[in-house]
């Protein structure tokens, strides 16, 4: 029975793999074609930029030469380095000794300009005659519509200084547009404009009269709304509340589009505004609209009653206290304090110029405090004697650590010089986790008959004057695998590139994975939204069932632990995925199919579907081992690119010096150290 079960699993996998083989191959060819096109386009653009720079330099040289000739009282010389623009070589400059022909093109263009000028003047004259049409003038005057010229070929119609429409004279007729939106209202031909006596078409006049009536209706509504606004401004109950709560009303400001006034505290903090707008019958009180005056008045009085009328200093102090209180009650921050044997009291001491929230150690003694300054709300870190250590804001600006934290003894040059290409037994694969075509995670997986060793490669390694991960974006995965192989001394056989969205989809399709954390994961720089509120990324020690998004958070967090811890968590996630894959049975053919569909969209690999299936089946029972990685804990040191380029130390430059990008290089700038240490990790030696 067990053999039948296994046979069914294999048949299902092979069947689906065959079904998707063509899809994978077509997708791969499409990606390669697109990548090649983009590289070719980039190269052409680069060549054009270079040619443009060269042309500019040559022209500048000619100009400078003419300047010199002018200083020597010599006539200016005409340089035509590149020939007439748009003329082929055969029709360009004549050969030396042949008389140059005069260019007659400007005269042809002058005739064209004359004809266009005549047409424009004819239209202007036609429009002027139209403006003098007595019947049109009488009609517009009766409707209260004014008209003015707008350029030589257009008229602007307005009612009570509010633009209605724009009339444009065209070659074949006219077009009437909405004045504000330029949306077409009407269009007609020359016959409608009149020949003997130029006049506006009757339907244009009718539409203008209709628009004027609409404007008048809106003006009346706006005037009524303005009257309601003034009633609210002078309401006796509102005036009494304003005095009682020590609030201020600004003067009413108004124009043809809006009228409003603001309610502020005594020291000028805006609380809310009241507004009425042209074209709307509503009164806006704060953020709420009202059609009826009574509803607006009731809400206005409520906002005045509930208004926070504290001064700026009081608000700042309370905001600082609330920030510390939220921190004291935050689960992640409490867990972080617990690791260090501390807790933060949520009841402050009120002494002198501060409210003190005390840190209490395991002995019950005060270890320090977070102190909120009463006048400005600034939060300071105090020691156990209430002496200022520094503003908390200062600790938020933290420069990356330079140098190395390693005490590892390095091999001598004789050992390193004997190293050639690393050729360990087994298969070496490059694994990349990407987002928006950036290689965020780089892992070397070495598969031997006994185990699969994962080795993390930092993306900030400065290889040949570039960060190593930038080569992925420039050259794509195939060449990137070769470059990583050059740096590490390995022969990388294949690559698998997984987009972060595939990572999420695969885990969700699997129904989640189990990950066991030996230490709590707390990352204050990784803010997440849970149940509608922003909080700190925090997972306590223990076993967690993670969906795709949660697993990605665990794998990507890097700010409160070193690269080794991050690589270890990524290994745990990979092990969780592998374990869940191993649990798939013959009854979960649909799950396998959904997984392959997701991988087809988000995975780029040098393997064919058959090879991927065989790789998995042949190695599904071997152990996954965290080999660690190269980092500042072993053979790397941290610096900045411009410090490296200039050979200067950080203490040798001033604050205005551009230090460049934060980068990682081998200690003593000896690039043989990386292959040497990678070889040790593959052999299982992390010392």
Describe the structure.
- Strand 10 and strand 11 (288-290) form a beta hairpin.
- 43% of the residues lie in helices and 25% in strands.
- The longest helix is centred in the first third of the chain and has 70 residues, at 2-71.
- Residues 81-98 have low confidence and may be disordered.
- By secondary structure, the chain is α+β, with helices and mostly antiparallel strands.
- Helix 1 packs parallel to helix 16 and helix 13 packs across helix 14.
- The strands form eight sheets. Strands 6, 7, 8, 9, 10 and 11 form a six-stranded antiparallel β-sheet that branches. Strands 12, 13, 14, 15, 16 and 17 form a six-stranded antiparallel β-sheet that branches. It has a six-stranded mixed β-sheet with strand order 28-23-18-19-20-29, sandwiched between helices.
Task: Describe this protein with a few key phrases.
687 residues, 6-stranded antiparallel beta sheet, 25% strand, 31 strands, alpha+beta
The biggest sheet amounts to: 6 strands, antiparallel
Total strands: 31
N→C terminal distance: 48 Å
Oligomer: single chain
Query: Roughly what is the average pLDDT, rounded to an integer?
Result: 81
Radius of gyration from CA coordinates = 38 Å
Q: Count of helices?
A: 19
Helix content: 40-55%
State the low-pLDDT regions, or none. Answer: 81-98
Estimate what percentage of residues fall within beta strands.
15-25%
Task: Name the structural class.
Answer: alpha+beta
* General form: extended
